[in-house]
Each structure stands twice: as C-alpha cells, then as structure tokens.
Amino acid sequence: MFKSRRAGTFFSLLFLLIIIILITVDLTKPFLCFNEKKQNPQETFEKNLERSLILYGNWFIKNQTDAGDFNYELNVDTGEKIPNYNIVRQAGSFYSLTHAYKYTKNDNYKKGIEKGIIFFENLIEEVEGNVPMSRIKHEGTIQSNTVAVYLLALIEYIETDNTDKDKYLETSTKLANYLLYTQRNDGSFLQRLDPAEESDYNNGESFYALIRMYKLSGDKRYLTGATKAADYIILKYSAEPFNYSVFAWAMQGMAHLYSVEHDSKYWDFMKSYTDSYFKRGGNTANLYFRGYKVPPPKGNLGVYLEGLAHVAWTAKETDPYYYSEVSLFIKKSLEYLMSLQINGPASERKSAIPWISGGICYDYRCKTQRIDITHHNLSAIYFYLTYVK
After folding, report:
1. 315-320: long-range pairs with CB below 8 Å, 24+
2. Which CATH architecture has domain 39-388?
C-alpha cells in the first residue's frame, strides 16, 4: 500500500509537470517556424528601395509645374519655394523621372514625362550644318550638357516604350549630332561655343550620351565620338587629381562603352579612378559608416553612386571581388541616404507638407530639398536595382 501511494504521488507530480510545460511552452512554434519563410534582410532592403524610388517619382510629379519643369528648391520646414533655377538640373530631373517610369511603368510618371517633353520642345532651336542639328536655348543661354542630359532622358524613354521610338528618334538624332558638332579633335567637348569653354561635367555627360545614342541607333558616328571622348578622358583625368565633376558620368559612359568594345583600357581606368574616389570622398563616407566621428555624408552622395553602380555592373564579370567591395559600399550608402528621405520607408524624418513628402534632405540638417539631389538619388536606386543587385 505504501508503494502504491508513492507511485500515485510520482504520477501526480509528473502529470502536473506536463501541465506546466504545456502552459508555459508553445509546442506549436517549431512547426510554425518550419512553415514560416524567414525574413531576408536583402529582400527587405530592396523592397524599401523600391518604395523609396516610388516616393521620389511621386515627389517629382507633385513638384512639376503646369509648364512641365519642376520646383527647383524648397524650404523643408515651410514648404516655400526658394527662387533658384538651373536648366541642366531640370533636364537631369526629367532624366531620372524616366528611370522611375522605366522601373514601375506608372502612368503618372509617363504623363509627367510627356509634360517635360513639351517644356523642352519649346526651348529647342535648329542649328545649320552639314547634318540636321538641334540644341536647347534657355533664356538666351546655350549649354551643351543640357542637350546631353535631355538626350539621355529621351533615350531612356524610347527604350522603355518602343512605340515612342519613331516619335522621338528624329529629335534625339538632331541633339546627338549637335554634341558631335561641339566635340573637338582631341575628343573633348565645348560646353559653350562663344566664347569657347570646356566643362568637366559636360565632358562626362556628352560622352555618356553619345555611347547611349550609339546603342540605341547603331550609328557608327556616335561610337566614334564616344571612343574619342573616352581616350581624352582617360588621358586628361588620369594625369590630374581626382575630379568629382567628371566621375559619375564618365563611369557610366565607360561601362556602356566597355559593354560594346570590351577593351581593357576602359575597365582599367574605371577601376583606377574608382580607387581614387575611395581614397577621397568615399573614404570619409566609409569612416562614417564604420562609426568614426566624421561629418555625415550629404545627399549628393547619390551622385557618385550612379557612377559606382556602373563600375559594379562591369566588375560583376571582370573582377568579382571588386564587385563585392563596390556593391557593399553602394548598399551602405543607400541605407544611409534613405534615412534622409522625408516620410521614407527607412527614415524617421517626417513632414505633413504633401510636396515635401518623399523628397530627400540636402544634408543631415534637412533645411532644404533640391531637384538635383532628389533626382540623383532616384537614379542611384534605379541603377542599383537594375545593374548591381
């Protein structure tokens, strides 16, 4: 009888222990974990980038005027327009809006692009020459890089919807012919003709526009112009201190030229010039990302990411280790830049002003927004999602 009581007590305690376990432990969790898809940090990052890109595209639509251009600069606190203007950056904003449309096929972006085309068509004038040529004249000023960047926008738009090719190819050809007209024998380009003036920005932009025009049209004249420009850029800028103005556009041009010609000299220059970037501005950003007490990067970091995305694109096959290094820097930079986007998917910065929402702060103090900073960051995201990931 004593043994029976001990056995009964043992089984009672065992039963009580099982009840406690059932109450305190969710036994279904292992089975749920088996069926659940674990959250992938890279997927989350890319989804945030897509949302950020859409917010940028929407920001441009909200800030597009009835004439078709964009509000240039805004006070973040009040939403008031700051009376500045730059026609080249207007063309750049139009160019980036074509990236938003190319990635999303959003009809609102298409309508915004068509409004932009009407705006620029009113600024185009014909130029006499041996071939049909056109250029853009704004308030009496003619700058070749306005032509180059607007041409890039048209090319992106044509590539997105081939039904627009016949509609805009003639205009694109005339603009490209004008860029060839401004190219000097050494391969450089004139930003202004009278008086003759060269520009580092324009050397990169016109070079990039010509190689993209060649890939669109197959016209060898544009390939010849692009190769001359590439040789000039390699010769000139390899012998000088790092030039921030030429970097992003030149890297984009070199990447597309390399995809056509596969000449190692183009990749060698891309890699050496990118190394120079990482020793300067890129190094400061890297230190910040690693926790050092250096000033946070400004929003214009997105400018250089456009060039770096093309370096990573080329490095995928030519130098996988270099690709991993460059792509990691781009990713860290984009993560940081998303924190500067008002009401962005990875940002704590908020605003109830509709036309401020979705744009990016000029810098970490976030006093102003400007179209060039926003358009470069939109394109940087587009290039990462298209060429890098």
Report:
1. 315/271, 318/267, 319/267, 319/271
2. Alpha/alpha barrel (1.50)
